[in-house]
Amino acid sequence: MKKLFWSIILVMASIGVMAQKPMIGISTGYSASENTASVRFTYIDAVLNAGGIPVLLPLAKDSLSAAEAIERVDGLILSGGEDVHPFFYGEEPAGALGGVNVPRDKSDMWLLQSAVKLSKAVLSICRGEQLTNVTFGGTLYQDIPSQYPNRPAVQHSQRFGGTEPVHHVNVVENSHLYEIMQQEQLAVNSFHHQAVKDVAPDFKVVATAPDGVVEAIEGFPKYNVMAVQWHPEYFAQQGDKQWVKLFEDLVLRAGGKKGFLKEPNIKQPRIR
Fold first, then answer.
1. How many alpha carbons fall within 13 Å on the CB side of residue 32?
2. pLDDT per residue over 20-33, tens digit each?
3. Where residue 272 falls among pLDDT bands split at 50, 70, 90?
4. Which pTM does this prediction carry?
5. Is residue 9 a part of any domain in this protein?
């Protein structure tokens, strides 16, 4: 009887573990003047549509608090935002450098470093790609229009909504990105004036714009990290199945497809 009892307990515990969806931490923007941490709902909805649980990660004050936060999630999204300060890759600020946020730079770097050390899955987006490259030893063009060799042929900072693509990127076939999307060319949106210059060691370029600007890098197999320059969360929020794949891949890398908890039988609150 005791044996049967403990067998039932073990099965119930296993079901409980399998019922948990992977928790995906999302780095947030930080405003000292407004004393706020925030992120667009595009990221939150993209994770939900991919079967994960979004968890917002506010500014980490030090590497220990970043590690403690990452320890509690299964994956990490480094979200978009300001320019990365050039001091982090050994350069002086150029005249066309945009706004920077050093406390956020440090926080995102700590989060990323902790995720890699703890073997957590990472998807870096826009500024996230640039910061990923810098964190692992790469450099950036501080301003594409004034620094990129030859004048860029495509619009990298589009002048209309993020749910519409502005240019194409060419995807390297022998890449994880290609395995996910199964396309040699993707139509993407674009909101950046900085870009990867010297690629970080152990990373490889897996997508470029028609003018050669780096659009995606990967750290596989050494690092469980994918980074893209565009904003796929805009498309994934709309339920675009093609782009939800990118977030489903993150959820898979963060812990695989797991069973879903049943919706609790709770009455909806009424406004009186």
1. 5
2. 799 999 999 999 99
3. low
4. 0.89
5. no
With respect to residue 203, please indicate whether it lies within any of the assigned structural domains. Answer: yes
The closest alpha carbon to 234, from 20, 29, 46, 86, belongs to 46
Q: From CA 103, how far away is CA 59, in angstroms rounded?
A: 8
Q: Is residue 41 part of a domain?
A: yes
272 burial type by CB count under 10 A (0-12 exposed, 13-18 middle, 19+ buried): exposed
Helix then strand then coil, in percent of the chain rounded to 5, is 35, 20, 45
Question: SS3 for 154?
Answer: coil
Catalytic residue IDs: 126, 231, 233
Q: Which helix (H) or strand (E) holds 69?
A: helix 63-71
Overall number of domains in the chain: 1
- Distance from the Cα of residue 102 to its chain's centroid: 19
CB 120 within 8 A of CB 70: yes
Reduced to 3 states (helix: H, G, I; strand: E, B; else coil), residue 20 is coil
From residue 186, how far is each of 53, 95, 108, 242 by CA, in Å?
A: 27, 32, 28, 10
How many C-beta atoms surround the C-beta of residue 93 within 10 A?
A: 13
Q: Per-residue DSSP letters for 167-196?
A: EEEEEPSSSHHHHHH--SEEEE--B-S-EE
* Residue 53 lies in domain: 23-30+37-253
Residue 216 placed within a domain: yes
Which 3 state secondary structure label does DSSP give 11? helix
Of 266, 163, 252, 180, nearest in space to 216 by CA: 180
Mind listing the pLDDT tens digit for each residue in 201-235? 999 999 999 999 999 999 999 999 999 999 999 99
CATH code, 235: 3.40.50.880
